[in-house]
Write a structure and sequence with these properties.
By secondary structure, the protein is mainly α. The protein is built from 4 helices and no strands. The protein has one domain. The chain starts with a helix and ends with a helix.
Length: about 110
């Protein structure tokens, strides 16, 4: 169950990062509210996952899901630039997430 919480927390991190961008520095009410609500939910799920997962694994996977997701949203939704170096960086982050999961002793 901890891994499910962790993945959901990571997905919510993508949501809050996107809406933080859309909030224009917390000057728009709706995106700002969505940012804060999804941040609280994401941190809460991360805390639940950390009850049984090691800190290093949980935090790395959580931030990695958020980083890769925000990277993808930036490219596909916001039209941010894409380059071989950015793709390589994303692939390395993804490889790190996979290695953390594989090396974790908690199922």
């Amino acid at each position: 169950m901890a891994w499910i919480y962790l993945v959901l927390a990571g997905l919510l991190e993508i949501v809050w990062a996107f809406f933080m961008k859309k909030s224009e520095g917390f000057t728009l009410l709706a995106p700002s509210s969505i940012t804060i609500i999804t941040m609280i939910a994401s941190f809460s799920l991360l805390a639940l996952a950390m009850r049984s997962l090691p800190l290093g694994t949980a935090y790395t996977v959580w931030t990695g899901i958020g980083a890769i997701g925000a990277f993808a949203v930036g490219i596909f939704v916001l039209g941010e630039s894409i380059s071989p170096m950015r793709l390589t960086a994303g692939a390395l982050i993804l490889a790190g997430i996979i290695l953390m999961k594989v090396s974790s002793t908690t199922v």
